[in-house]
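In this section we walk through a basic example: taking a raw amino acid sequence and producing a predicted 3D structure, encoded as discrete structure tokens. The instruction is simple. Fold the sequence below.
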Amino acid sequence: MLAQTWLRSLIWTDYRLAVIFTVILPLILLLWALAQKAETIMRLLTIYWRVSSLLAISVYLLIPAFPVGFISGIMARILIPISLWFWVDINEEIADRSTGALTLSFNAWRWAVSIFCSIGAVSTLPFLQCAISKEAVSTPFCRAFLEPPLLFKEYFHPNSQAGFLGFLGMVGLIFYVGCLIYFVFFKLGKQGRSAIS
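The resulting token sequence is shown next.
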């Protein structure tokens, strides 16, 4: 019972930190970059929002307890740090920017969210067992991980069916995977590690 309480506490802490690090702070930084017309930072944050949309898709997949949501959540945590450090041209431009409050704040967030996502990816690996089957999802261990997405549903979609929200998540996942495949097999070979299309 104590272990279950600790598990639930850790899961809720992780979700709260995820809202801060992956939604609130990058939104503030994007608005700040827009106000200062910091194009390089805006470009990287745009890439970040595209990649991190997999986190939102995962929440919708977890509302009806679709096992694939556990996999997509871990993949999102792996892809986010990669997306923030992959681009050689953006890294050089940010390094060449004059050291101001925006640049320092952006770099601090970039390191913080990368560390948070890396630790999160490793710490949620045990939940991959929840992706094995519908039966595994019904265990108390896996159900604890589904509590925050269900609360999200109560707040933002109180009148929607869980299955419909899961369907929206599946459509989003298919679109996301399609875009990722297109990028890896077609765009990456042409542009390499340059963010400029």
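Looking at the output, two observations stand out. The CA atoms of residues 3 and 9 lie 10 Å apart. DSSP finds eight helices and no strands in the chain. In the next section we compare this with other chains.
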